[in-house]
Specification:
CATH topology of the largest domain: Rossmann fold
Bound molecules: flavin-adenine dinucleotide
CATH architecture of the largest domain: 3-Layer(aba) Sandwich
Number of helices: 8
Radius of gyration: 21 Å
Structural class: alpha/beta
Amino acid sequence: MVLIFIDHSGSEIKKSSYEALSYGAALAKKLGTSAEALLPGTVEDDLAALGNYGISKVHQLAKETLNNLDAQVYAKAIAEAATSLQADVIVFSHNQTGKAVAPRVAARLKAGLVAGAVALPDTSNGFVVKKSVFSGKAFANVNITTAIKVISLNPNSFPVKKTDGLATVEQLNIAVDAPKVKIAAIDKVKGEVPLTEAEIVVSGGRGLKGPENWKIVEDLAHVLHAATACSRPVADAGWRPHHEHVGQTGIQISPNLYIAIGISGAIQHLAGVNRSKTIVVINKDPEAPFFKAADYGIVGDAFDVVPKLTEEIKKLKG
Ligand code: FAD
């Protein structure tokens, strides 16, 4: 059986979980087995409707304490659930939760792990999983030889496939440890689309010259209902808050559309955004390295191009 871990915010299932469900369901089909899901904690979403993503059952560990991530508590509970359900493959999203939990689950189950898979395994000769390495610069094909296998799926690597169907929901009866981390307060950024969940991100770099010029970025983000982000020097200089910094040392994002304005495209920046489905680059230097990673590029002055783009989108949206 393929067991897919459902990641959530304490109220909503995260979008990367739908990709993991579709991947797990396709993998189960390939292996001739069933796909089931595991949800620690509680959400407001309809769990039976997860059957629309190709799974037959949702196992829920409905403990309030699991609504906040404690990687050690999660890993122990998931490993025990996987053992009692006799899962052969456990699938996670390769997001912050998956990165913290999947290796711990693999260690507990003495299972081989491929972190950051980008395709379904090739099972013609072993169980070979393709994964991205060196911040997306190359791929490695890794053969998992253990009986139990753990895979974390890179965001935006596998399309969400909706089918028809309802899953049965069953409560799991597994002892869950008390959290080892006490959460004193949760301070969420209000009134904005969270960067890690955003479908569209508009991002600004040093080419914008100063914080006083960010209105053109915000206006474009506003018409697109997008989240805003920035390069590291912009956050370091205090032009934008640090929680907007994307890249190797910042947040790693995977929106459908990433619009980079006045950002050169250094490898450390690309490491955080190269999982975006479509990348649009606006830069006045035609030699800017970002254009090599872009799907669409506009060579021009941001102060000229961006307001025009915003106006045109406004007109299109009526
Ligand atoms: P710049 O490199 O200064 O580029 C500005 C760009 O704006 C240029 O391409 C220029 O042509 C263009 N431009 C200028 N004026 C205009 C205009 N009017 N209109 C349009 N375009 C214009 N960086 C990150 O972003 N995230 C990270 O996580 C990160 N981690 C790092 C980790 C390490 C260990 C190191 C060493 C570096 C890291 N960096 C990171 C920094 C990274 O190497 C780059 O220095 C940084 O990304 C550059 O930011 P930028 O593109 O905004 O600025």
